[in-house]
Write a structure and sequence with these properties.
122 residues; alpha+beta; two-stranded antiparallel sheet; 15% strand; globular; Lipoprotein; signal; lipoprotein
Length: 122
């Protein structure tokens, strides 16, 4: 029995670590968020499956919603490469970002910012 408990603990740890890397969950208000509960946005200047149109100061204000190497596509969610070799989540082919001015989970201060940033909704 003692041998089975460590195996069960390892299996549970693997399950929970995998679920932490799943596609961002949908918040109760209908907006998608990252694992920290921060609102996710798309940028109208990005093209589906193309490189990010957000760099420099834009990338500081709108950080890419980072994905881990182990993250896998799920439904409308895919993982794309960034210019620096990292990974980023994309929703229906469009890269997703967080907004630096969203101070806490549930904030959506970037919604419709300059008419080109939009919350990701189902």
């Amino acid at each position: 029995m003692k041998i089975q408990l460590p195996m069960l603990a390892a299996a549970l740890a693997a399950t929970f670590s995998l679920s932490a890397h799943a596609a961002p969950p949908m918040a109760a208000n209908g907006m998608y968020t990252d694992a920290k509960g921060m609102t996710l946005y798309t940028f109208d200047k990005d093209t589906a499956s193309g490189p990010s149109a957000c760099s420099g100061g834009c990338a500081q204000a709108w950080p890419a919603a980072a994905a881990d190497a182990s993250d896998q596509p799920q439904g409308d969610w895919t993982v794309v490469s960034t210019a620096d070799g990292g990974k980023q989540w994309a929703y229906k082919g469009k890269r997703v970002y967080t907004f630096a001015k969203d101070a806490k989970p549930g904030d959506a201060k970037g919604e419709n910012f300059k008419d080109v940033w939009h919350t990701v909704k189902q």
